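Quick entry between incubations.
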Amino acid sequence: MMPEHILVAVAWPYANGPRHIGHVAGFGVPADIFARYHRLRGNRVLMISGTDEHGTPITLVADKEGTTPQAIADRYNKIIGDDLYNLGLSYDTFTRTTTANHYAVTQDIFRTLYERGYIIRQETLGAFSATTGRTLPDRYIEGTCPICGYDEARGDQCDNCGSQLDPTDLINPRSKVDGQPPVFKPTEHFFLDLPAFAEQLRAWIDQQGHWRPNVRNFSLNFLKELKPRAITRDLEWGVPIPLPEYSNRDDKKIYVWFDAVIGYLSASIEWARNRGEPDAWREWWQNPDARHFYFMGKDNIVFHTVIWPAMLLGYGAGGQFGANPGGKYDGIPLQLPYNVVSSEFLTMEGKKFSSSRGIVIYVNDFLSRYDADALRYFLTIAGPENQDTDFTWAEFVRRNNDELVATWGNLVNRTLSNVYKNFGSVPQPGPLTAADEQVLAEVTGGIETVGELLAAARFKAALSEAMRLAAQVNIYLSEQEPWKVIKSDRERAATIWYVALRCVDTLKIIFTPFLPFSSQRLHEYLGYDGYIAGPLRFQDVTEADGRTHRVLTGDYDQWSGRWEPSALPVGQTLRQPQPLFKKLDEKVVEEELARMQSRAL
RNA sequence: GCCGGGGUAGCUCAGCGGUAGAGCAAACGGCUCAUAAUCGUUAGGUCGCGGGUUCGAAUCCCGCCUCCGGCACCA
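Done. Structure below.
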């Protein structure tokens, strides 16, 4: 089978603070499982993302700390990058939106859309901060609701009566940031002409029968009331507008969302350049057979199903980057998303995550006490794949101890301990019985069944099936009782343990996308060398302007793992095994709840 | 308010037109190689409420209750 080109496009974490486990549950972990699976299958995967570093919230954090937006972005780019590395998220390129490359690609898309008439100018009445002169987004304006009299209504809606509002509707409007009344004045903005693409988008989305129904329905509905959308803001922090009259102005920039989605393309271009093959990204973006999978939370659906596709349609095969005169992909437009995999939300002990109220567990804090695979297991088996789900410490401990440790960890440990102690290497089997053949066939079948579920982005079902297969091997061992058999018939015991080892070795591959760290350790206990999948590394990239930034990447071409059944050689020497996972004390629940309580004070 | 998605065993969830399912928790039993891990058996639900379509409805339709999300300048 020809290797497929798969683009795994992961939502860009916003760099105004550390990210909590809800963020990585929604897109990071699922996307990584998907990417790892496809790499094991031998497909050519390009997994890209980065930190999203423009926009109002970062400027507010900077103001509060008396520093620059760039300093804030630098700090959280580092923390978030470290988190993703520690979680084993195997990005080909995890970069950032403040690179010269990203600015160039963003401006190319803006300029191309503008020249083709898809970006139009319009004057609007904007709200500005009286103290800083910057745009005050509707959400940052508070006042009394003209309908119900609630005095903490926001500029976009009243949380008390639910009415849709304009900031100018509010009685006694004031900035949420400094309490001053906002200044309203006319300002020119650029609008993306979304209605120009409405029919094309509708026809395209109609054909996407493989999308999750909520994604498709929601997007089609969104198309019904499509209006031009402002893509600039009165802000000094952002990508400059690439038009002569704005080149020297520092008060109007491209809106963060417009540049953030372009990151999928700019990061791909950066990946190719860093690799020394500047046109390599075209194999994913202009190859008609490539498939693009986007992973994000449900709040971001329309940016990926409507707005970004509209931008891509408008850009087509043009611009400075898209054009490939005389090249292999001359005149071929950029690819639209193949699937948009949206997750629901994770809640924390029954409540919404809230940094300000202390209802939160940050990724780095979590990983300082617990293993990445334990978190990856929980977020996959109990995560918000199809509906909102709740993270509780009690459930985390229970799933870790009763499922991960007891079923899979114990199967590995009892098998390796027995074989290591009694044989030291993979034993030579005698003739296989029907029971032996059956368990081998069932586990081998998992390569197919779990693989199909992974390809369909049904991660919860895929991991459940893998766990069921591990339980099947535990049943097999209970029935065969090799620890008894060895006392009278060493050859038969050797056969049983050989079968169990083969099953464990196949399950190791099946579990690798979900649990890469423990699978690697198991790989070594089984006597193999090299990396089954990994490792990740950081790379420092210096651009033409002399600035340097750090990119998370990895040498994934070197992976030795293949999505195939075990071919464990008889006689291979095992290494001394250790338990794969840590059993957690029940006291962890109380400790963590107390920790959360103290943060809330 | 409008749009979308949920409400199924004590808990977490799967099923989405053809005799109610899984894991965990519970009760009992087996095993003791393994991180007291494991294996088996049992028990447990008028599938949010009310109507309708159908030979047959968790599953389709209508209404209602309730929870979550989105609603265009939060990202």
